């Protein structure tokens, strides 16, 4: 690829990623080589390579492909002479795992590489994940197999993969001779299909049945893939019979995975099933604090204002991956423009993320919270009774509904037992008034608002 072609592609990228992203991330890239489908770009720092790979790798690949380049992968590397580490890669599709094994060493094992950042040391424990963490720790101690399989499940970005890698690292540390294999269900399928194609099933079976610990990530992937399921089932049984530990993860509970045979579901439930709950504020803050400690080493001169982390932990309540990405973007941005990370910079820099994770609060949620808070029944909050003990909380709930949702007064009225919009308006005004002179009401409102936003 000539510099001219890259110049043209950059112009197209300018359109797709926007001016400020372009200036910050695309312009500094220096095209290096295009060799056997791998396009390599030089970046000034590894951090930047990571960032570009994560956020713009797909865009770059798309534009390269559109312009007729034969590319299957984009790599970013720090040129020799600078503090070069391993190149950062964005792959086109899940690669068919090679026989490289987990993190090297085990030459003939069929696993995927382990991420060196995913260890127990870097896993922050909080109420939502303490059970899963404890179970993972227990399995990682090795020794007698107490529950088999360990089935971990939970939503996207809650730490399933992190925990599995942590188990693998720990097992390998304690017993280097153990044959520990980690791979995704998708990779399991690829290898299975490959073995079928190469008429090499015997070797495939031998390989998988010879491991000591098998971890299969995102097992929901095998739903409706009948032959793969069947093979997984046999592998599973063979290993359990030999008392080998199996660890499985999924984005939902075993019984909730549609398209998996009952006998497999019941097998998967026969050990210990634990779930990772959605994060809470404290856990998110803990994770952010830990990441800041990590980043600080990379950016010793960067200052972050008080309150920024708390703000992020409050506002980004989706998954941890999004949270990490946001923090990383802040650091990257702050260090590029050489400014300290203030609240204002945070809001500017993360406007899109913050918008996307703005949780939609519903009137029903508000009603539930308010009735809990005042210890009255939901039916009394919504119902016709006009005594003060019900009427005041009702007005507070109306006020919060007006302030925290996009519902109109008539819509709110309908949700409060079909009341007229003027009644709602009156309630909202009343609370606005009381808020100024009654500190108890002001406190109640603040508490409720915070708990709804958490
Ligand atoms: P999942 O596999 O459940 O989708 P991951 O394990 O890939 O989620 O986690 C997403 C990201 O969030 C990873 O970078 C991981 O390190 C991080 N993460 C999730 N939970 C925690 C935690 N409790 N402590 C530290 N990092 C976490
Ligand atoms: Mg995962």
Q: Could you characterize what this model shows?
A:
The relative contact order is 0.07. The strands form two sheets. A five-stranded parallel beta sheet has the order 6-7-8-5-9, sandwiched between helices. Helix 4 (130-140) packs parallel to helix 5 (160-174), helix 10 packs parallel to helix 12 and helix 17 crosses helix 19. It is an alpha/beta fold and 454 residues long. It is globular. It folds into four domains: 3-89, GMP Synthetase, Chain A, domain 3 (2-Layer Sandwich); 120-275, P-loop containing nucleotide triphosphate hydrolases (Rossmann fold, 3-Layer(aba) Sandwich), CATH 3.40.50.300; 281-356, Orthogonal Bundle (Helicase, Ruva Protein, domain 3), CATH 1.10.8; 363-453, Chromosomal Replication Initiator Protein Dnaa, Chain: A (Orthogonal Bundle), CATH 1.10.1750. Helices cover 54% and strands 10% of the residues. The protein has 20 helices and nine strands. The site of adenosine-5'-diphosphate has 17 residues, from helix 5 and helix 12. Adenosine-5'-diphosphate is lined by residues 118, 122-124, 129, 154, 156-162, 287, 320-321, 324.
